[in-house]
Amino acid sequence: MGNCQIRFELVHFKRPVIFYSNGYETYIWDDARYSSYRQIYGFYSFKSLENLRFKHQYANKELERNNPDLSIVERPYQIEAIKTLSRKFQDQGRKALIIQATGTGKTRVAIALSELLIREHWAQRILFLCDRRELRKQADDAFKDFLRSEPRCVIGATNKVPTDSRIYIATYPGMMNRFAQFDVGFFDLIIADESHRSIYNRYKDLFDYFDALQVGLTATPVKFISRNTFKMFDCTDTQPTFEFGLDKAIENEPPYLVPFKVKDVTTEFLRDGIHYNQLSEEQQKQLEADLGEEIAKQTTIKGSQIGKKIFSESTDTHILENLMENGIKDATGSLIGKTIIFAQRQDHAEHLEQLFCKLYPQYGARVCKVIHNKIHKVDNLITEFKEPNNDFRIAISVDMLDTGIDVPEVVNLVFAKPVMSWVKFWQMIGRGTRLCPNLFGLGKDKKEFLIFDHYGNFKYFEEEYEEPEDVKSVSLLQSTFLARLDFAKAALVHSDIDGFDIATKLLAADINDLPNDSISVKKHLRIVHQLQQTQLIIEFSAATQHILLDKIAPLMDARVLKEKEAIAFDKLIALTQESLIRKSSAYDTYKAQILTEVSSLAVNIQAVRQKAELIKAVQTQAYWSDMTVSTLEQLRLELRLLMQFKQANTTGGVWDTPTTTTQDGEVQIIEKEISLSNNEAMLYRKKLKEILDQMIDSNTVLQKIRQQQPVEEGELQMLTSTVLSEHPNIEIDVLNKFYGRTAAELHLTIQDIVGLDPKAVEQHFREFLYNHPQLTARQVQFLNLLQAYISQNGGIIIDKLYEAPFTGVHPESLDGLFTPDDVTDLIHVMKPFVKKQPPEQRIA
């Protein structure tokens, strides 16, 4: 085949793209760009082939040696991320996974990568996928801000999608309903925001269908990303293509995210629950008055279920009062700062809002409002909360503000619910991590935020949490197929001919219902056709049973779920038939369920009335006295379509949660230290700097040293005197001699301790980075290490460049990474920060 390509190229002066197929598997061989062929699930349209030819001719083969648009991304780690991806694509990789903490600019990285690939002719059409409509709007606004000239299309506004846009933005469900409108080669790049296990489990067809470069974005820490997600983006377990996590972002100099303090605030009810027998006499009387004596005496509710099974006014009062008294206030100190309260569910959120209005009528609904998806025009409410200077300060959220919503002004998070998912928990914490300059007045930036944890979430994740296995949930269609498979096996083992015929015919009907155009079905189409066109199911060998269980059952999700209640009844009958054949004790349980289903049919519906005789018979003992699988099958056929007419159970709705005014007990507040990093060296260094760091904001001499400005001898003496007066145990002169410096060089010693202004250092190196767009990802990584080292250590000794951490990037450090000319330029840039080699360091 390679010779054919060469001959074609010699005659037509163009390298051909080859597609080949045996009717089941289809492959593309594009050896002008890739060394190996790959499987695809359709053919390119003529227009997509033209696009591919354009990339052959004009795509920049040295993609890595081009800077992204620095008006979109300016932070060094963002540039490093894009260059790392560029390198992978340049080296024929087609998938990548980026881990970036919430608030570090994942969307900006995605936009800058899109701009670079468009500019360098690697991509003409790009698809950005996200979880929800709110995030879709947020992504659309971001692309509009930074790539205004590129035509965009928000998929979901109409069923028909235009094909002449450059940027396409969609939710995963929205795209699943429409991706068949495009050919497999339509998109050049797919960016998947918040890539985690649900992407793999529910939307994998999207990524298999499109023959495009694919990038996953997630804020989930490495250890909580599933193996399937790493595999999906061609990464080794625990090794993403690029990572910049929460600890790096907070501990960076300058910090890119804000740290937080945790206050574990619990009450007696939240710690121990509400158990009638454990309450005081006074509490018992109040509970009886609220719930009624009979219900009260049976009450036993866990602390985690308060707000779900029962509303405790006293408990929720403590939660709200604690926020108003101890939460971070605004610049005036008179009103609470922007706050998100995470509530159990909608009725709990509304209960908290009503209670707030009762406790603080002077603020009321002007300050505190509920946000959940049942509120009319909830998007407008979210937009209002995002406005920085209005009175809407407390948003009580039910799932709407947990992920993806950016409000930098948020300074308080209140967990008024337990959270069971580590991924979601840290996404929720991410709502407070964003920087917010001048939040408390000019020069008074947001330095931290508070987390009020009322339901022991941090304790749960530290002591009890276990990551769930990465197992896909079984759908109704799949579980029904599996029930029928077990029915067939039981019939075979017990030589029940009628049962075997019924079960195998049902299995065959399910397989015939599989859609051939589904990607998951196409992967196994050869096997599907064999089962459809041969006697394999009737023969029902052990090998066939294994295929049905292992290969075919998971494909049932590709079928369209019609008549959900009817399918559920099908499953129940199959389970009953199997238990009848096996004479299992489960038979009586399934029989009772059938009776319940049949007796719940609405007799006022004409279709039900037409089957009144059968329905009445089913509820007699005589009907069940000599039951067979054939009788059950006839029952299924007669009643399955009537199951849609079952009478709804109107009891136990979400709006009848009882409320008690029973007085809660002791409030307990524990401040928790949350360590984000295990880097002991960093933690130790911070400890040493603590004294001088506390003085920097108020001491002009320290500020001048940090900015590398000249310092007079008298200023140094005054600084020394100030330090000694407050900390008499510190011997600065001895420390100065240790570094081999004179008294006049004391400022250099202090500079070693407090470091340099990281913003100034970053700005100094940014010019070099901008003027050398051809730098590779590893060169940018080296620069990021260099400026971090200089900021932390007040400068650098040249010899240190040939030690760790620099040799971790390349064994020969800068000599192995840069050309001689670039090394010269870099040394010139470093010159203001180069320190002389000290003499042997020892204290006499």
TrEMBL record:
This is DEAD/DEAH box helicase. Residues 327-493 form the Helicase C-terminal domain. CDD domains: DEXHc_RE_I_III_res, SF2_C_EcoAI-like. PROSITE patterns: HELICASE_ATP_BIND_1, HELICASE_CTER. SMART domains: DEXDc. One of its GO terms (biological process) is DNA modification. Residues 87-239 form the Helicase ATP-binding domain. One of its GO terms (molecular function) is hydrolase activity. It comes from Acinetobacter towneri. One of its GO terms (cellular component) is cytosol.
